[in-house]
Amino acid sequence: MSTIARIMNQGLFPVRVDPLKSVEQEAEFSGSIAVSKLGRLQDFLQDDSGEAQVEIQFGHDEQGTALLRGKCHAHVRMTCQRCMNPVEVALATDFEVGIVFSDEQAKHLDKQYEPVIADAESLELLPVIEDELILSLPMYAYHEQCGDHDLVQTEEETTPVETEAPNNPFSVLEQLKKK
Ligand SMILES: [Zn+2]
Q1: Which residues contact 121 (CB under 8 A, 6 or more apart)?
Q2: Distance 164 CA to ligand 1 centre (A)
Q3: Mean pLDDT of residues grouped by 10 in the chain (179 residues)?
Q4: pLDDT at 134
Q5: What is the pTM of this model?
Q6: Beta strand segments in 10-113, E
Q7: Would you say 12 and 31 are in contact if contact means Cβ atoms under 8 Å apart?
Q8: How far is the CA of 20 from the centre of ligand 1 (A)?
Q9: How far apart are CA 84 and CA 30, in angstroms?
Q10: C-beta atoms surrounding 27 within 10 Å
């Protein structure tokens, strides 16, 4: 707990938490995660610049299902599919996942929740956040207007593109699972 408190004071998001205690206490955590810490997300990006701002809260639904709810937003650089130069993309996602402690529990989880499997002592938070960010990636990124992007973009040129999570069977994570 003291480790988490110290990390929180630095504004960094905790790497792992005690899931049972967090659910019981309806604990809230917020902070930032450097994109450079999220290797699987980076596979979709131009570089590892940027960081994600994350807020999460643990709790239960009416049926007593342990839940993790959160919000995450990040500015990342993808590759423009028209000119192949970097384009800054704003990612934003709201999520709600069910916390389970075995495959068996995951099978019985209410279908409305994606299961996240924790062990009794610790829940790794970064992979959960990373999955949600990957799901929120646009299928393709484009500049509104491709210009002369031979040079690194200036602030004025990096117009963030608002994106919605791709809510269809061709979403990025689905494609990954099929591989
Ligand atoms: Zn472009």
Answers
A1: 18
A2: 19
A3: 46 88 95 95 95 96 94 96 95 96 94 93 95 95 80 49 55 56
A4: 97
A5: 0.75
A6: 16-17, 28-34, 51-60, 66-79, 86-100
A7: yes
A8: 47
A9: 34
A10: 18
